[in-house]
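Batch 3, record 17
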Amino acid sequence: MTLAPRILPHLGRALVLALLAFAIFGPLLNLVLWAFAEKWYFPSKLPLEYGLTFWQRVFAPRGNALASLGTSIWIAVLTVIVSLVVAIPAGYALGRLKLPWRGLILLAFLLPQAVPNLPVYVNIAQVFYRIGLAGTITGVVLVHASHGLVLAVWIASAAFASVDASLEEAARNMGASVWTCFRTVTLPLAAPGLMASAIFVFLESVDEFTGTYFVGVPDVTTLPLLMFNASMGGNYQIASITALLLLVPSIAFMLVVERFLKADVLAMVGR
Amino acid sequence: MATLADDTVVEMRRSGDSRFVAFALLAPALLVVGLFFVVPLVLSAVGAFRSTEGAFTLAHFAKALDLYTRDLLFTIEIVVLSTLLIAAVAIAIAGYLTLGEHPRAVAILRWLYRWPLFIPFVVAGQIMRTFLAKNGMLNHVLIGSGLIAPISAQSMLDWRGIVVAFVWKQAPFVTLLLAGAMAALERQHIEAARNLGAPRWRVLVDIVLPQVRGTLLVGLVLSFVAMLSVLSVPLMINPNSPTMITVDVAYRINTFADYAVANALCLLSLLLAAFGAAFYLRHAVRKVEDA
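Prediction for the assembled complex:
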């Protein structure tokens, strides 16, 4: 009786944490089980047989999972290149130079995040179809880049804004040209922030579904599309294995996100 | 060595040039967003109001409303309910992270809550498709723990499945933003209130939340808009009527190549997002003016 009031809060806390842990890891564990299940029928609670048959099928040399993985990574790399080539100058201008309507321009770059993307994908698919870009890697990269750009510009402008201006002035006073100063002083100091935006854009591109669904059809099959097709075809093992592949970059990034985003971006959101 | 006068001249020339340089640097990014985002958006608006002969018409909207009013309401219900649940979860977790007094529980919670943070919607859809099925793990655990009878196990792959997938995926995102904003608050007010004997939930509601309302709003609006345009989750969990507008748009295009009604549906969902965006823009513009 005397112990109860002291133990009860601990029990309650442990119970809530356990429920939350189940809510988060239960679905993930279920996915892992499916990925290794050879046979799993109703009403058995756990798979009847475990094995790697489906893994062999997914990773078979002629299997389309490896091809999709390759397509996904290739598209993501190109998307990062296109986004950064365009976002670095824009981020520099917004973060470093005197600019009228700076807030308004930053808001404009937020537009693609604050407007549902479906109408955009539907109509861009139609335009791309007419000019022969539908179903091509280029078409998909352009769609991914126009969306990834938004984050890239915001993060890049925060990264450039956080570079100490006196260091640039020192370099300029010692006779460095604008370009040399940017290349040897500003860019290296902003590099961690730019790296963060590159990772963000990469991840967004790898995970993107709706745009690829409309624009990539029928020739570009990225990993999310492969997973979706397998799932809709009722092949839960293949879908789960592909989903696990997609989880690798997501969870790796989740574990390190605060290292990249600690000060500059999180503090900026909502300002 | 530059003299003072030289410096001023250079400075004046620089500020004149710099505006031009700044816009030149911005141009490619604005061009990409303009070409691949704004133009298609305008095309959508045009397509929704144009008949096959090119005249102005409201027929596409009439047809869209005629066929899909039920789905529009269904979409609103799902997205609003999910947003409210996300807010509740995010406030509870971020609040405990800020005000919790048991260091180990706070550490565990901080590690725990964010696992779904960057998991894509399409994967969340697949995960919930198996987890919430009649033969899924949730039902087995509920039966095993004696909470429900085996006979009453049912599939949750309907509106509930969509809401669960949305909250599971988006709540960590809003929590991350909210916990970041709460951590940046001055602790003095919180400490003072606690010292005066205010319970933690009052400190959360009366002192902490009012100061982070902006961040909460941004997180919720971004989630609201994201959920409105997700195609994969409703397609995988609940593809049959009533379903979400995104599924109807895909159906109009894939089955009938009916871009006109699809665009009308898109504009209707834009209208829904506009309610959310209006909140957001009002807040953002105020902040820009403050800055």
